[in-house]
Amino acid sequence: MAARFLVVAAVANIALAYSNTVPVVAWSSYSSYALDSLPAQLDSTSHSVSLLESILSSEDICSHEAIVLVNQPGLHASDLRTLSPSTHIARSIVSAPSSRQYPYLPSHSEHEYGLPSIAQTVSAKCGSRFLQYTPGQDKVSLQPSSKHVLCINMPHLDKSGQARKSTMAQHEILLEHELSSLASVFPNHLIIFSGSPLVSHSKRQVPDRPILDLSASDSFAPTNTTLPAGGILKKYQLLTPGLITALLIAFFVLVPAVMMGMTALASIQNPIRSDVSKSFNAQERKNQ
């Protein structure tokens, strides 16, 4: 029983260790020192934002005609593993002269909002044209005669189960169309595809925006009583790491200990009674 608990606890610790990580994959159409100089595995102090800054601060980063930063909130390493080998992302990584894959990087709380700032810094450094847009929603005009730094914001990936796999396939098709168009305009390109922590729209913090907008004409905003679609796990966060640990301890330590104690108590038997019968006469027994 103790060995079983240790195995379950080890698996739980591994799952919790990967709970706050995001994947980052990068590839280039030409040989890139920015990618080739990176180690195959990063140390524990590296996180997603520091990796992006390390790549984009390389000396040869400005040699690319286009630098494409793709960000998808909610993306997991398992989502990339479920993609078919025939998809654009998989084929590009395999055939790229330079590529790197980091499936589990500690996420940074300001990844989603810090990405445009990093892209603008690279744009100013290389004298490139900066564009930020969402594929399928925003129209952009490219200038083949100038270098570009593009920040592509993919839709949030907040599904689960089979719906998540289907949504990821649709997003990959959308991204494939966008990257193929960019590759035809800019043959020498560097693409960085990364995930970021998924933050609900209702709790998202907007930079440079006051907490209370006193300029609004209405004193109170209308109350939104519409509940989000989905089951109870979609509406509320029930299974927290602390609750999961408490349940594991309760079911694999406390419950077995109580059951063993009850079994031990039930196995206790009364000693054989040694009471002398009332009809017993010691004098008669002696005369016999």
From TrEMBL:
GO biological process entries? (1->6)-beta-D-glucan biosynthetic process; cell wall organization; fungal-type cell wall biogenesis
Q: Which domain of life is it from?
A: Eukaryota
Q: Native species of this protein?
A: Psilocybe cyanescens
Give TM regions. Answer: 243-268
Keywords from the named record:
Cell wall biogenesis/degradation, Endoplasmic reticulum, Membrane, Signal, Transmembrane, Transmembrane helix
Q: Which protein family is it in? A: Belongs to the BIG1 family.
Q: What is the lineage of its organism?
A: Eukaryota, Fungi, Dikarya, Basidiomycota, Agaricomycotina
Q: What is the recorded name of this protein?
A: Protein BIG1
Please state the span of the N-terminal signal peptide per the UniProt entry.
1-17
Q: Does the keyword Hydrolase apply?
A: no
- Coiled-coil ranges per UniProt: none
* Membrane topology listed for this record: Single-pass type I membrane protein
